[in-house]
Amino acid sequence: MATNFAFMNSWIETPPVLSSLLESIGSPADGVQIWASHLEALSPAELDQLNALLDPSEHARAARFHFDRDRRHYVASRGFLRHLVASALDQPAPALVFEYGPHGKPAISSATLAGRTLRFNLSHSAGWAVFALCWDREVGIDLESAVRLERDPADLAALAMRVLSARELAIWQALPDAASRQAAFLRAWTRKEAYAKAIGHGLFEQLIRNEVALDAAAPEPSLTLASTQTSGETWIIHDLSAPDGFAAALAVEQKLL
User: Fold this and answer.
1) Is the Cβ–Cβ distance between 230 and 240 less than 8 Å?
2) How do residues 117-165 score in pLDDT, each as one tens digit?
3) How, if at all, do strands 211-212 and 223-224 pair?
4) 3-state DSSP call for residue 174?
5) What is the predicted pLDDT for the residue at 232?
6) Which residues pair with 107 in a beta bridge?
7) Residue 245: predicted pLDDT
8) What is the CATH number of domain 145-255?
9) Quick one: 16-143 is in which CATH superfamily?
10) Is the CB of residue 164 less than 8 Å from the CB of residue 183?
11) Once rounded to an integer, what is the mean pLDDT over residues 87-97?
12) CA 89 to CA 117: how far, in whole Å?
């Protein structure tokens, strides 16, 4: 289900200084808030405000980037993540201590408020960033630029064989032209990577084992879990509308009672 960009009120109170820099995409799933920012549009003064929220380890990592554009995108995306998480938890943004899973998924050990635990995820690509936050359920989000897939058709076919299941690959190969195959692959990639990020696993080890719909007209992307997943989990994937040339998807855990 595609969710259109739209401004709306949220349980996250955005301070006025940053309110014009983040856009609420809305809530495609109950209790989940999605935010987006065009990182390329930020002014030096706005970047300075976001940089002030980072901790020493993040400042050190930012300094290691070879290209200034990559450094700016890192500073902005990390600053926005700290700002959103701190606002939700009513904590100072610079004081947040992030922890990382074996495949890099961020978390905070103190991410509780009134007995509830905040889960969050982020993704950035080609100058845009998206953020997902919700309470008590795992969540993953992915944003990808089509520029990454503007490659030789043979290269894309080789990547498809690494990412798609046998059934998905047969559907993909039957599509009528290169443009439709590229668009379908981008949809599948973002849907699968959002799920892999939600569960905190490495990308390729999960992608081929779980299936999603490739049809853009599907009313709701489905997800077939690998047999190793627990029976107490089910997952819903939502397509998110994105700027031209991008695809984005959200995966959110649905806990069974």
Assistant:
1) no
2) 899 999 999 999 999 999 888 999 999 998 877 767 778 888 898 888 8
3) antiparallel
4) coil
5) 53
6) 99
7) 85
8) 3.90.470.20
9) 4'-phosphopantetheinyl transferase domain (3.90.470.20)
10) no
11) 90
12) 9
Q: How far apart are CA 156 and CA 150, in angstroms?
A: 8
CA–CA gap between residue 197 and residue 232 (Å, rounded): 19
- Whether residue 217 contacts residue 183, with contact meaning beta carbons closer than 8 Å, is answered with no
* Rg, the chain, Cα only: 18
Bridge partners for 120 per DSSP: 133
pLDDT at residue 4 tops 50: no
For 43-77, letters b (16+ CB in 10 Å) and e give eeebbebbbebbeeebeeebeeeeeeeebbbbbbb
pTM for the model: 0.83
Query: What length is written for the chain?
Result: 257
- For residue 175, give the amino acid letter: L
Torsion angle in degrees (nearest 10) through CA of 64, 18, 85, 50: 20
Alpha helices (H) along 1-138: 16-19, 44-51, 56-64, 68-89
Least confident of 41-55, 174-188, 208-222: 208-222
Q: Which two tokens stand for residue 94?
A: 């610079």
Q: Spell out the domain ranges in the chain.
A: 16-143, 145-255
Position 119 scores a pLDDT of 92
